[in-house]
Amino acid sequence: MNYDQILQEIKEEVKIYNQMGAVGSSIPELTKVDPSKFGIHLVTIKGENYSIGDSNEKFSIQSISKVLSLSFAFTFLGERIWERIGVEPSGTPFNSLVQLEYEKGKPRNPFINPGALVIADMLITHTKNPKTEFLNFVRTLTNSDEIDFNLKVASSEKAFGFKNVALANLLKSYCNIENDVDEVLDFYFHQCAIEMTCNELANCFLFYAHEGKILHNNKFILNQSQVKRINSLMQTCGFYDESGEFTYKVGLPGKSGIGGGIVAIHPKKYSVATWSPRLNEKGNSVLGMKSLELLTTKTGMSIF
Amino acid sequence: MNYDQILQEIKEEVKIYNQMGAVGSSIPELTKVDPSKFGIHLVTIKGENYSIGDSNEKFSIQSISKVLSLSFAFTFLGERIWERIGVEPSGTPFNSLVQLEYEKGKPRNPFINPGALVIADMLITHTKNPKTEFLNFVRTLTNSDEIDFNLKVASSEKAFGFKNVALANLLKSYCNIENDVDEVLDFYFHQCAIEMTCNELANCFLFYAHEGKILHNNKFILNQSQVKRINSLMQTCGFYDESGEFTYKVGLPGKSGIGGGIVAIHPKKYSVATWSPRLNEKGNSVLGMKSLELLTTKTGMSIF
Amino acid sequence: MNYDQILQEIKEEVKIYNQMGAVGSSIPELTKVDPSKFGIHLVTIKGENYSIGDSNEKFSIQSISKVLSLSFAFTFLGERIWERIGVEPSGTPFNSLVQLEYEKGKPRNPFINPGALVIADMLITHTKNPKTEFLNFVRTLTNSDEIDFNLKVASSEKAFGFKNVALANLLKSYCNIENDVDEVLDFYFHQCAIEMTCNELANCFLFYAHEGKILHNNKFILNQSQVKRINSLMQTCGFYDESGEFTYKVGLPGKSGIGGGIVAIHPKKYSVATWSPRLNEKGNSVLGMKSLELLTTKTGMSIF
Amino acid sequence: MNYDQILQEIKEEVKIYNQMGAVGSSIPELTKVDPSKFGIHLVTIKGENYSIGDSNEKFSIQSISKVLSLSFAFTFLGERIWERIGVEPSGTPFNSLVQLEYEKGKPRNPFINPGALVIADMLITHTKNPKTEFLNFVRTLTNSDEIDFNLKVASSEKAFGFKNVALANLLKSYCNIENDVDEVLDFYFHQCAIEMTCNELANCFLFYAHEGKILHNNKFILNQSQVKRINSLMQTCGFYDESGEFTYKVGLPGKSGIGGGIVAIHPKKYSVATWSPRLNEKGNSVLGMKSLELLTTKTGMSIF
Question: Going by C-beta distance under 8 Å and a sequence separation of 6 or more, which residues neighbour residue A14?
């Protein structure tokens, strides 16, 4: 497969969409980004790296971090996670407080905000120094010590994150938060404020395509069955209310963030990360979605 | 892969669950079934057939027919289908009338009842003799003239299907039904009342695993891209409010029916059908779900 | 109280609003009305009649009939009505199918469509000739044989009433309709198609202000306690999602219809009917609401 | 009217229900109350006082305070209040976060928690020392300096009020809270923690029955029109999801609190307060509801 050429073609073909969508505005600090940025990085399970555009610039991974925190919690708790969170798509055009209330405080899945808050709570219970240990986990996956939190972004989220404060307190009212609400929120806002490049992000997620093993040392982070399950969750729940659309058009498990990043996995083949800050109305990167649709079309490979 | 032995093992291992769940009671005629029935049939894209138990007994395929009617509509309309129906999982524990009302008469996907009613309406518009032509389509897929409607089941659904009548009229009130409501319902009740054996069902669905081609004559029913898309819909929406659970545990696209049948596809590998009438509280066959979970575990093969 | 002068003043003062709102469009036959029509009729429990404008022209009373059918059912069933219907305001901006589904087929009150359909079902069970007997009941209240159904309106509702068909079938699916769905709908569409003038309507409703007695013969239709209860229901549930607004601004129990009529009761004082076909976005007559607000302001009399 | 005898009869007749219901458990400090307490105090607009049982014992007025804070806000803002809050009953069996989200942060009425939080926010904006000034307002109405906050109850609410914290943050996320969320909550928790006896409560609310004037000095707190409007709000929204039931059975405007108190108003006649800590499943005092139903039945007087 000539990935270099395919990425080149994709870059050309998505150009016509590059004024569509708008930079996410919910976190003021994130609005400072240059909306014209665009990068792709693909890495195969043979360790071949392909990239194009701004693939070495840092961006805020935001909700993409939810896959990593879930995976970290999985290493402690395994299937016990599901006592407090479901595995079903949220499938609701209206916001998750509604659903959380209907379902008595059990979030439908770990990739909507309330689910990620419960995961954050689990990590606080099971680690001594949650932020440091989580950061080390991500650095280990990526094989890079340069991954870090952007503290300005974290505090910008804190200052304007009233809805997340509402969600965390609602979870607490249903006894589905064990620790102090402020501590959970602090961890959560930091987790979302991790910055990566497309290159780092694609490599960080490669173990999901590689049966749970880090490529360079063949060390298992999760076993094959656990990785399969996280991939399946990305497939059904990775794109908020657009998960079906992504599955329909792209046909790969993946996860998006409001920083404009998307990562997708072709099990046993590759991991790919895209970044472009303009989002569609569902909160997913316009060029990222388009690029990945073109990728599976051009390679003729999807999991279906 | 020794499928014969795997099916044998599955049959043994699921025995302990064979008193769990209850036969679906919404259609009186369907309650007459023997709840202890259990069969599996698996057919590979090489044409190898494996079966166990009551795999040659007819049962009512019910909602499984929605995949077939969607596929038939696809042959006429292609992507224009999505002007009137979405591709997102419904993800709601409460019934679909609510959702239909929120979303102004556009069903979230073609596998919930209102979506299937819109598909039925499309087929009526685009065929001269909808019931006959649809039956012929299914017979062609299965390469068997023995497939037929069970008229008693169709009329039992008609007599007690007040909720479907409500849905069809609600769709009509939103102008998302073009034809006469009664005609749409009549087609829909017949479509659901098709009977098949596990053997027939697995072979009927084999073309979804075979890139859109019927195995014995290599004739394309849908192209590769269309088949990929229908498979992805089965993945995200095939099991009502348990689609995430099925994806998480089984990791294959599939579709269930309240007659106790389930069909699942491993793209480029096989198609498999199970039948056991006892349903869990979400309306999916207990033994069927268990069997397919064991199948992907024992073969070590899933799409993720 | 100089009601003549007050009605005159009201007519002048509401003129500035007479282009606001639009004639209800859900029933085609009703759109033929002249939107500039406007009338008021007030009758006191001493039998004094005051009127202004088009108070002697017939209009379709529509949902106002729900108070009359409830009262008729009350004469048969008394408090047993509440085994199948609630007495709480619906308080929902979105339509009643949602609520009906949440509450398992028990309508929140008798003045929303599903509640009125259950009342219609009760009347069919308890009468030999429902339409005739109901019409006679209304004629007796009004002391006039000129009250009748408008058959064109009834059949126009039937032809376009898909949402009501949906509601009736949903109720049937919850076993809260005993009779044939079509028969219930036929009665309901006729009931709503009764025509009255403001004069007739005000006189028809006078017994609610007169402790349950028809004025001219002092015959009790309902006892004092029953009338108090129906008045209280009009207060909390009479104006769909604008019941609170009407209570807040007018301070009298009342009921509106999409034909543009409103009737209101001042217990122990008077009954008043208004008619103007232009409706606000909540489905209530703009000039009617305004007129009644002015009436209680100018008379300085409300129940609060 | 022989109120002494009527209260005596009521006390006897409600005895059979005195084991029904349970003390509200959401605020731990409130569970310490003796569940067998029961008192009634009625005061007419002529200044005649009637009481029975534990009518001189203090209890936590809780949500009853919402009528007082609304009235205080009315003195500053008049009808401008309704720019940020509605006047419609909430009419929902499920909790108010759902509704708040549907309606984009505008609470349906001032008597549900989010509405009261917005009122609290208004008072903080319009006073220098909100807690002191509100307390003085209540003392003036009651003509007693003995009214005070119970600080233990206020801090117990604070410690367990996660749902209210969630609501306040959700309102803030919709920009319907101007001040600091913690300050709003602190005021709200204090407001609810005011303690009164039945005697004090009935006298405090007497001005709502007396056209807005304090009885002993004839000083207007609100004008006649404003009082009418607050009374109408109590009628439609005073009892959560049981407002219709209370209106239907009692036929007077009123307000309940989870401390077991209820106050009701007969405009131009009397104000009456009851207290009994056992609540029904809707959160309203069982004996209080029963007593007031008997009161309007025995006196033959309701507003309808």
Answer: A38, A287, A290, A291, A294
